Amino acid sequence: MDLVDQKEIKFNEQGLVPVVTQAENGEVLMLAYANKEALRLTLQTKKAHYFSRSRQKLWLKGETSGNIQKVKEVLIDCDQDAVLYQIKQKGVACHTGNRSCFYRKLK
After folding, report:
1. CA-based nearest residue to 21, from 78, 79, 80, 90
2. Is 3 a residue whose pLDDT tops 90?
3. What does the alpha-carbon distance between residue 60 and residue 39 come to, in Å, rounded to a whole number?
4. Is 46 left (phi over 0), alpha (psi -120 to 50) or beta?
């Protein structure tokens, strides 16, 4: 597998990159955003960190709920403008109490 330097990530005009979070079984759990600091903390601590667009601050997934995401690997897509956290989920990922944020089908 190729290694890509973090400097190669193409952050958007707000300084964010979309992050898809995937469980060990391949299930997509959520989509969130990270800035450089969130990504640095994720790689350093092996716990999923994101940037909240609504609160305009960093957040550690599970800090208040206990539903921590232990990061096994961080991958970047071919365009270098999206990131995938492969994680081990403790509890649920969604704030609604569902395991995944993708629990509803579109009509």
Report:
1. 90
2. no
3. 11
4. left
Tokens of 52: 């909240």
Assigned token pair, 11:
């952050």
One-letter identity of residue 8: E
Tokens describing residue 103: 């629990």
Which residues, 6 or more positions from 67, have their beta carbon under 8 angstroms from its beta carbon? 61, 89, 90, 91, 92, 93
Domains of the chain with CATH codes: 6-89 (3.10.20.810)
Report pLDDT digits (tens) over 29-52. Answer: 999 999 999 999 999 999 999 999
Q: Which residues contact 10 (CB under 8 A, 6 or more apart)?
A: 17, 79, 80, 81
